[in-house]
Amino acid sequence: MLATKQLTFEYGPAKQFAFPDVYCANREALLILGRSGTGKTTFLHLLALLLRPKSGSVVIDQTDLTKLSAAETAAFRAKHVGIVYQKPHFVSSLSVLDNLVLANYLANKPQDKTLARDLAGQLGFGDHMAKKTHQLSQGEQQRVSIARAVMNQPDIILADEPTSSLDDENTDRVVKLLRDQSERIGASLIVVTHDQRLKDVFQNRIVL
Ligand SMILES: Nc1ncnc2c1ncn2[C@@H]1O[C@H](COP(=O)(O)OP(=O)(O)OP(=O)(O)O)[C@@H](O)[C@H]1O
Questions:
Q1: What's the Cα-to-Cα distance from 35 to each of 94, 139, 193, 195, 204, rounded to whole Å?
Q2: Higher-confidence residue: 35 or 97?
Q3: What region holds the ABC transporter domain (predicted)?
Q4: CB distance 201 to 28 below 8 Å
């Protein structure tokens, strides 16, 4: 479960945000729609406490992230939150497999290569595990990002514009993968996007 209350943030006096309260129960999905520049990435980064709000709270299950220290927040995030970034961030010197198990390492969990291979099979990049991530197509990298986001069976999956550069067929595929994976592990799924194609796929949605 993720719930926010009265979240505000500013990059400076000229760029201030007051975000609507959101609630997403376990196993549910929430779509946050907004045009370019309305603050979607900023909001998603606040949900993960990658940015610290000026005021307000972000509660995941029983924990108010805004009450944690920076070190506690990083540890909590690594264990409980899976993030699919707008642009995938990988360690370029590592293989696809090692990028996946790195998520376990960062969460202080045993490296689960069996799960990594299972996910790669389900998401259709099983043949690429020994390659470096830059040797994969953009769509393949996106699927690796989704796999990495679920490697620690997180309580919350946050996805930033996961379909913006994809054609209709791959958009359907990526949305299905995100929903299947989050349902499989019982996580809450929150997607921020300007992609109007997604608005009919998600029952719960808010507009920024
Ligand atoms: N580090 C920063 N410093 C100052 N302003 C910023 C910073 N990051 C973002 N902004 C501004 O805040 C606003 C919201 O940015 P954000 O990236 O959250 O929007 P977005 O809705 O995700 O946009 P897009 O759909 O184009 O990715 C924009 O006007 C942007 O220029």
A1: 35, 23, 8, 9, 18
A2: 97
A3: 2-206
A4: no
Pocket of ligand 1 (CB under 6 A): 11, 15, 34, 36-42, 194
Q: What's the pTM?
A: 0.92
Give residue 152 CA to ligand 1 midpoint distance, Å: 29
Instruction: Give the number of residues written for the chain.
Output: 208
- Cα(142)–Cα(132) distance, rounded to whole angstroms? 14
Packing angle between helix 96-106 and helix 113-123, nearest 10 degrees? 130
- Residue 83: per-residue pLDDT: 94
> Which position has the token pair 């499989």?
184
CATH number for region 2-207: 3.40.50.300
Give the DSSP per-residue string, 126-151. Answer: GGGTTSBGGGS-HHHHHHHHHHHHHT
Give the ligand 1 atom nearest the CA of 44: 18
Q: What are the residue ranges spanned by the domains of the chain?
A: 2-207
Whether ipTM > 0.85 holds is yes
Q: Which helix (H) or strand (E) holds 45?
A: helix 40-47
Tokens coding 189:
């799924």
Name residue, tokens 């998520």. 103
Phi, psi of 124, rounded to the nearest 5 degrees: 80, 30
Q: What is the DSSP letter of 20?
A: P
Distance CA 175, CA 198 (A): 8
